[in-house]
Amino acid sequence: MPSSSNQSESHTPAHVKHRHRPTATPGIYTSSSGKPSGLRWECKYFDRAKKKQTWSPAFKYRKDALRYQAEVTVKQDTGTVIGNPSKTLGALVTDWKIVRDTRVRATTAQAQDMHLARHILPALGHEKVREISRGTILTWQAGLARTDGKGPLSPNTVNLIRTTLSSVLDFAVAEGIIAINPCHTLTRADKPKRSQAERTILAPGDFDLLVAAVGRRSWFADVLDVTLAQALRLGEVAGLDWKDVDFERNELTIARSVSKKSGEVGPTKGGTAETIFLSPVARKTLARIHLAAGRPPSGPVFSSVGSVQGGYRHPSTIERAFADAYKKSGVKTPGLSMHSLRHTAISRLANNPKVPLDKVRRFARHSSITITQTYMHDVQTPEVNEAMGEALAAVAGEVEA
After folding, report:
1. What confidence score (pLDDT) does residue 108 get?
2. CA pair distance 95, 101, nearest whole angstrom
3. d(CA 236, CA 256)
4. In the prediction, which pLDDT does 185 show?
5. Contact 211/217 with Cβ under 8 angstroms?
6. Cβ contacts of residue 95 below 8 Å, gap of 6+?
7. Exposed / middle / buried, residue 394 (Cβ in 10 Å: 0-12, 13-18, 19+)
8. pLDDT averaged per 10 residues in sequence order, the chain, 401 residues
9. CA separation (Å) from 94 to 65, 166, 372?
10. Which bin fits 285, alpha (ψ -120 to 50), beta or left (φ > 0)?
């Protein structure tokens, strides 16, 4: 059995400077700087994807080169991409950003960069990606705190920061560096629970009071209708275009978003356009506006002569209208904002026993059903119990038949 020392199988002494000298093990080579502890072990293999001979990273120990060679063999046989096993999270982030920046809007990228700079890279940047485990994630997550020293972060913020890390680790899986994203192994119990205060929704009667308080901003009543009926984000309702509205198929395409900070028109939060069901309430409101505008084939649904390119209404204008109506409405529910309309719509759908949860997920355009589940709460009403009874009776009937 070969020795595991650094100089075993090396045809050239470690103190002699050399590069890519073969050893007795096929595919394993050594290189040395000629200095003490300068010997390194490497694996040479044929990369089928690149169709050329490729060198592995240089390892300090022979056993690591052999392990890499074994992994290469397995991955080549299964057609798996081969990634750099010594790559750190910090180095991976650099590559990830190149791909990320082509897929998400600028505001999302800015938020992710802030998460990385403040909370992720300082703690995990020097960690090898392959050594980041579920335990690593849990320990890191437990230590997250505000950078101003004013206590812990809110559960919602912790979850958003972890989502950024998860996105980077998804990229690592795609690159073949790791087989499984450790963030995906976390259970619901491992993730901080969002408080109801962080997900404020309208109480019964609040919406009517808000609509009644719009004053001279009659256009804002229509914005409220469409935002609530379609569970839209602020930038998305501002960026609606008539070419996105299909009255014949009852479909609405969410194709763009107007940035609140810059007023720039860009991609949606998910990075791609998505088509959803056009609800009856939104359809009625949009049809009225469309007819009054002369039925244009394209152009902003909520137009403005402001600074936004293309004539879309600025999100800040919409927010100011909401703040004014909220102040004058007499609504008692604290902490409401335009985003509360989206939360309210998703919550109502998620807690309706007649609406499949995956339908809600697609309508809300959530990346996973786990996010949609955070909007659910235990509903105990005679109607719910009756619906459950009917569903179970139907199953029993099918079995008996």
Report:
1. 83
2. 10
3. 6
4. 83
5. no
6. 171, 175
7. exposed
8. 44 77 91 86 77 80 84 66 78 92 81 94 94 92 85 85 93 81 83 63 92 94 96 95 96 92 83 91 96 94 82 93 95 91 90 87 87 69 69 65 48
9. 25, 15, 31
10. alpha
pTM equals: 0.56
Domain boundaries defined on the chain: 18-78, 89-194, 206-373
Q: CATH homologous superfamily for 206-373? A: Intergrase catalytic core (1.10.443.10)
Tokens 């989502």 belong to 163
> CA neighbours within 13 Å on the CB side: how many for 61?
7
Give the number of other Cβ atoms within 10 Å of residue 30's Cβ.
25
What pLDDT shows up at residue 213? 96
Token pair in block for residue 343: 């939360």
- Give residue 1's pLDDT: 38
How far apart, in whole angstroms, are the C-alpha atoms of residue 38 and residue 32? 5
Q: How many other β-carbons are positioned within 10 Å of the β-carbon of residue 366?
A: 17
Q: How many residues does the chain have?
A: 401
Q: Which amino acid is at 294?
A: G
The answer to whether 81 and 72 are in contact (CB under 8 A) is: no
- C-alpha distances out from residue 106 to 113, 129, 243, 324, Å: 10, 26, 24, 28
Q: Residue 207: which of 313, 93, 326 has the closest Cα?
A: 326
Answer whether CATH 1.10.150 is correct for domain 89-194.
yes
* Helix or strand (DSSP H, E) at 115: helix 106-115
Strand order in 245-246's β-sheet? 245-246, 251-254, 274-277
Side chain identity at 383, as an amino acid letter? E
Structure token pair of residue 255: 């194709």
Residue 338, classified by CB atoms within 10 Å of its CB into exposed (0-12), middle (13-18) or buried (19+), is buried
